[in-house]
Amino acid sequence: MNAFRILLGLFFTCLIIYTSIVGINHGWKLFPVFFGDMAAMTWPGQFNLDFTGFLTLSGLWLAWRHHFSPGGLALGVLGFFGGMSVLAPYLIIASYKAKGDMKVLLLGKVRAGD
Fold first, then answer.
1. Contact by Cβ (8 Å): 92, 5
2. How many CA atoms lie within 13 A of 68 on its CB side?
3. d(CA 62, CA 106)
4. Those residues with Cβ within 8 angstroms of residue 90's Cβ, 6 or more apart along the chain or in another chain
5. Helices (DSSP H) in 1-108: which residue ranges?
6. Domain tally for the chain?
7. Strand, helix or coil at 41?
8. What is the dihedral of CA 65, 68, 71, 72, to 10 degrees?
9. Most buried residue, 2, 8, 32, 60, by CB count within 10 Å?
10. How far apart are alpha carbons 18 and 24 in whole angstroms?
11. Is the CB of residue 63 less than 8 Å from the CB of residue 76?
């Protein structure tokens, strides 16, 4: 579990640094570039479409894990738009709350039967 937490921390740290550098050098207008690549039907667009699927699954999982409660829905939206910058810290915190139990981490306390 510690290796998993370290990996998440590294992803989060690298992503924040990388995003900061890109934003400073190229501006903060992500959506026109992101959707423009998709509209152009290019390989970057294909990657963005694939990535959108992962973001959708991430957001749905977060909302589902919280039983589609208002807070869970808000967390799902944050997960969709925030990606790894939301999911990595969430999973680190949730892994401690689950006391390292992967079943509880993935399903939530209620569904895991704890």
1. yes
2. 1
3. 10
4. 62, 75, 79
5. 2-26, 30-39, 43-65, 70-82, 84-97, 102-107
6. 1
7. coil
8. 30
9. 8
10. 10
11. yes
Task: Output the tens digit of pLDDT for each of the chain's 114 residues.
Answer: 999 999 999 999 999 999 999 999 999 999 999 999 999 999 999 999 999 999 999 999 999 999 999 999 999 999 999 999 999 999 999 999 999 999 999 999 999 985
8: containing domain: 2-112
Q: Please, which residues have CB within 8 angstroms of residue 108's CB and are 6 or more apart in sequence?
A: 65, 66, 67
**Paired tokens of 8:** 């998440």
CA angle, corner 10, sides to 9 and 13, nearest 5?
Answer: 85
* Residue tagged 């589902």 (tokens): 64
